[in-house]
Amino acid sequence: MSDAVDIAKDRNGRKRALAPCLSPCPIERGMRIIGGKWKGSILWHLKDGPVRFNDLARQLGGASKKMVSQRLREMEEVGLVKREVVNMRPIAVAYNITPFGQTALKFLNELRAWSENHNL
Amino acid sequence: MSDAVDIAKDRNGRKRALAPCLSPCPIERGMRIIGGKWKGSILWHLKDGPVRFNDLARQLGGASKKMVSQRLREMEEVGLVKREVVNMRPIAVAYNITPFGQTALKFLNELRAWSENHNL
DNA sequence: TCAACCAGTATCTTTTTTGTAACCTTCCAC
DNA sequence: GTGGAAGGTTACAAAAAAGATACTGGTTGA
Q: What is the DSSP string of B33-99?
């Protein structure tokens, strides 16, 4: 019988993983940054240029303003998007994708293609 | 002032999105398949060959057996993995990645590289 | 003046997800 | 015959996420 993975027995005979994935293995870490509900979509909508808050909320048909605002703040904190006050009095705000955010577009596009090609 | 996105006014003067993303736009759909907690990691761990249930649970240091079993069933339902009884009496089960599951590895690998390259 | 827009907040409730712990059955070794 | 392994399941509690609704306060156009 072969164990494909790194499992060994300690000196008491109990099995143990040699290299357990303590939660933040790269895949999980990435998912936590970009995997939250709506985050991917938001970033995707910003890819062609700045978008205003309410426009964004309208486009993301199923998401409430609260959701959008919450996600945007999280994404701003990690530097994926940038909030920019375009105009005081009438207040106008635009959200931009940052260069770092751009680096995520590559695999978001993979994800998009994957979903589309497998009719999910 | 330019609206980068497809927003128009209806006959009552109210703004509306022309093509709102009702929740299942491809990115969101994909995220719901592969984006759940641990799902990516599980699939990743299966990429090199079949893994036994308890070994998997041990490897995913932070996940309980319940989580692992739950995720595995969800992933089996959509055809990402396959459960295989290797041996009755002593019962032995192995989880395999399916050809469909393989198609997701490309994206997962991009994600992994992204996380690692941006020290997240 | 009234209504709508801008960019959000605040509050509350509901739903979903996660975690903990115990338990089950069969088998083998001591 | 006790304890561990195997592969789970179940019940319960806690925590996190999401949704609904209302509201702010200033601005603009009819």
A: HH-STTHHHHHHHTTTS-EEHHHHHHHSTT--HHHHHHHHHHHHHTTSEEEEEEETTTTEEEEEE-H
Span B52-85, pLDDT tens digits = 999 999 988 778 999 999 999 999 999 999 999 9
Closest CA–CA distance from residue A7 to any residue of chain B (Å): 7
Cβ atoms of B9 and B16 within 8 Å: the answer is yes
Radius of gyration in angstroms for the set of CA atoms belonging to chain B, rounded to a whole number? 20
Mapped onto helix, strand or coil, the DSSP state of residue A58 is: helix
Query: What pTM did the predictor assign?
Result: 0.85
B61 closest CA partner among A33, A19, A32: A19
Cβ atoms B70, B51 nearer than 8 A? no
* CB B44 within 7 Å, strand D: no
Report which of B33, B90, B39 is spatially closest to residue B63, judged by C-alpha positions. Answer: B39
- Residues B115, A27: C-beta atoms closer than 8 Å: yes
